[in-house]
């Protein structure tokens, strides 16, 4: 199954999780009201039945809470567990882009120009740095669901980055393809190490160091292009990325 398919499955699990979580509060309130009502029910058999069914519902809600907590943990793990597959897939895609460009077989996306490709690369580079920084900051907050959501955003930004690399290689003739692809692969590999460190629950220093290395790789990748206003602005913003909190 492709990484997109796996992310789709994670999305379905998250949707089911949130829909189930919505039931808890009103159902819990129903149990409370039922228990409060039992003493005022005149018919004894009805009161006994109401007490019994409310107790059953209370037990089932407790089981649902446990299941939701387990699902929450599972969703977090799933969102990070497939990061290695993602990095491998993107790396292979970059290799193919480089090979096709060298052989003159790379075709630009309809409507894409050197200018739009450069703008997309600068934007996606900023997004990669930003989303990885957010993911590391989420670790500090201790919110595992936030970490998982940030991981998905980081994965999407890496895909956009690789797409932008394709655009550069297919539209610009003033870029040394070999050097550019090597630099782009470094971005992907170093981003993968950030995922690894998060999954391994590394120290704050290790997470920060991994994130800083991505910023270095992004700057090196952008430097492969002749200076443009878009690139200079992106480089300046990437240099400013900082992890906002400590673990």
Automatic annotation (TrEMBL):
Residue intervals of the Talin R4 domain: 21-71
Superkingdom of source: Eukaryota
GO biological process: actin cytoskeleton organization; cell-cell adhesion
UniProtKB keywords: Cytoplasm
Keyword Cell cycle belongs to the record: no
GO cellular component: cytoplasm; focal adhesion; plasma membrane
Transmembrane segments: none
Residues covered by the Talin IBS2B domain: 79-227
Chief localisation class: cytoplasm
InterPro entries, per database record: Alpha-catenin/vinculin-like_sf (IPR036723), Talin_IBS2B (IPR054082), Talin_R4 (IPR049108)
GO molecular function: actin filament binding; integrin binding
Gene3D superfamilies linked: Alpha-catenin/vinculin-like, Talin, central domain
Compartment list: Cytoplasm
Annotated protein name in UniProt: I/LWEQ domain-containing protein
Originating organism: Brugia pahangi (Filarial nematode worm)
């Amino acid at each position: 199954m492709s990484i997109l398919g796996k992310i789709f499955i994670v999305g379905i699990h998250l949707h089911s999780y949130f829909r189930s979580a919505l039931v808890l509060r009103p159902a819990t309130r129903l149990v409370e009201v039922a228990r409060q009502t039992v003493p005022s029910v005149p018919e004894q058999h009805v009161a006994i039945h109401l007490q019994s069914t409310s107790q059953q519902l209370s037990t089932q809600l407790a089981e649902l809470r446990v299941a939701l907590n387990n699902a929450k943990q599972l969703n977090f793990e799933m969102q990070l567990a497939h990061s290695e597959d993602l990095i491998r897939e993107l790396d292979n895609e970059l290799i193919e882009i480089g090979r096709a460009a060298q052989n003159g077989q790379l075709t630009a996306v309809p409507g894409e120009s050197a200018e739009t490709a450069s703008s997309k690369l600068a934007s996606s580079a900023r997004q990669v740095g930003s989303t990885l920084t957010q993911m590391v900051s989420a670790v500090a907050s201790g919110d595992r669901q936030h970490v998982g959501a940030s991981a998905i955003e980081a994965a999407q930004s890496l895909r956009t980055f690789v797409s932008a690399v394709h655009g550069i290689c297919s539209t610009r003739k003033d870029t040394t393809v070999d050097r550019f692809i090597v630099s782009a692969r470094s971005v992907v590999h170093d981003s993968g190490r950030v995922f690894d460190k998060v999954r391994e629950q590394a120290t704050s220093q290790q997470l920060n160091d991994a994130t800083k290395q991505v910023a270095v790789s992004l700057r090196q990748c952008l430097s492969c292009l002749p200076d443009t206003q878009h690139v200079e602005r992106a480089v300046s913003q990437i240099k400013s990325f900082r992890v906002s909190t400590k673990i």
